[in-house]
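User: Structure with 5-amino-5-deoxy-1-O-phosphono-D-mannitol, tokens only please.
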Amino acid sequence: MCGIVGYIGHREAYPIVIKGLKRLEYRGYDSAGIVLYDGKDLKLSKTKGKVSDLEEKSSKEISTNGTIGMGHTRWATHGVPNDVNSHPHLSNSGNLAIIHNGIIENYEPLKKELINRGYTFKSDTDTEVLVNLIEDVQKKDNLKLGKAVQIALNQVIGAYAICVFDKQKPDEIVVARLGSPLAIGIGKDEFFIASDATPFIEYTSNAIYLEDEEMAIVRLHKPLKIRKIKDDSLVDPYIQELQMNLEQIEKGGYDHFMMKEIYEQPNVIKDTYRGRLHANEGLIRMAGIEDNIDKFTNAKRIVIIACGTSWHAGLVAEYIFEEFARIPVEVEYASEFRYRNPIINKDDVIIAISQSGETADTLAAIKLAKENGAFVFGVCNVVGSSISRETHAGAYTHAGPEIGVASTKAFTTQITVLTMIALRLAKAKGTLSNSDFHRYLQELEIIPEKVAEALKTNDKAKEIAAVFKDATNFLYLGRGYNFPVALEGALKLKEISYIHAEGYPAAEMKHGPIALIDEQMPVVVIAPKQGHYDKVVSNIQEIKSRSGKIIAIVTKGDTQVRDLADYVIEIPDAADAMSPLLTTIPLQLLSYHIAVMRECNVDQPRNLAKSVTVE
Ligand code: M6R
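Assistant:
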């Protein structure tokens, strides 16, 4: 959570930092701030609210065309979101400025000690403690900033990506990371620092991603040196060429990123399987799987770890892996897995799923699994992310940047990757007949066209949204492959429209949730023809006899459910195992329209952030 941006070079820093913060706003948006160096002094402006609020405030408060600057967009951890708690924070002398993404867990004892030594604090943040700790270390032995940062960080417990600037030495920014991402863009006589590469893609395509426990002194006219924070040893910098372009991170004519990303799904699903799925040749080729095929085929069990929407994709994968490859699968919330002393065996394969590749709980769960000797495979979207580097092998989803906080295309591309893996393993283990294997390859190949067809339900979804936009509760029901889709549909609705929604396996309804059903309760039932259709029809009858309002997602041409439901949305026919890729589309659209009609901030829902880098 939190986005950080820094610039040091020959251009005016202010517009670069502000634009960068706007691109990183998905990471947190409850307050924002900027500090600029005007050649003599630090100019600071910060405010509760969004980057647009900061832009307005700072344009009145500071005017400098200084070429060094740092900015921050915050997702509050310590201290409420207000002006004072916003970053950047200055040290007591006013010489040092810091921006920080992460949490300093031992900030309280450090703060007490600093107070005893005469330091005072304006904010409630852990970050202000860190900048004063650095200043204290620096003053004690008259150290250079880099050394002082290093010594201070060795006293700190927690997670951080930081940029520190000292106005007494205004040709450098010191950066460091542990647990929170930090990228350095390398231009000609200029450097960009950011939580991800989006703030600087129009300036340079060369970037270095710091690894955990690394720091760098980003100094003008000097080659970048990266060191280990613990022992000061030098690390060879690995410069990556960025694959991203500007168009990918702009709205492209849509009102919201979420809608753009929903509509990108036919194309990005193709991107996901391009070069991997060869339906005509009857082949699936994925480097990460081929290199480790024995580990997968010999696995006694697969454990999937993830959070949120990625966890839902994991649940869909559980059904697919067990059916296709006959390997037992368990799906765990990463946050539970990491703290419950799980049994991890050497012949377990762990699959970690994460769009951002930065989710703190998933990252910690991966480390735990590795320590216990398991082989860990990552399914990530963000190239070069922490999880993609921490795992033994992996497969990218190639969905392109997902900026809307509500995950949409990440979900369907994760399912696509996982389906391909399951099919490849089924082939290796001989658990699917040849004809079924070929049929599924062909089905998957034409899924993008069907997703495009499913997107035509937009008007219908909007019409239904207008009817139910003021509902206070929603129930989502599905069975088999579409049970996780029910969970995902409910999550989508609650996170962007703030309507309480619950997903349930349809048959579980009678074990409790049925008590909720009355004429006020909209119930979204996912009832494609290929699933446990008859059983779901019985569940619909049960809802109907209790006067619930039924919104059914059905296969095109369905008549039976149409007679029972209040509203139907038709999607194309598909194999049961592929149906989540289609049934999820109208649910994404429905929640989008409800949120828009309720005037909610669709792309940046309250209290949330795109990348959850704190536990
Ligand atoms: O980046 P990750 O896939 O690891 O993120 C996991 C969850 O935080 C994420 O899916 C979250 O639930 C989304 N906001 C849901 O739309």
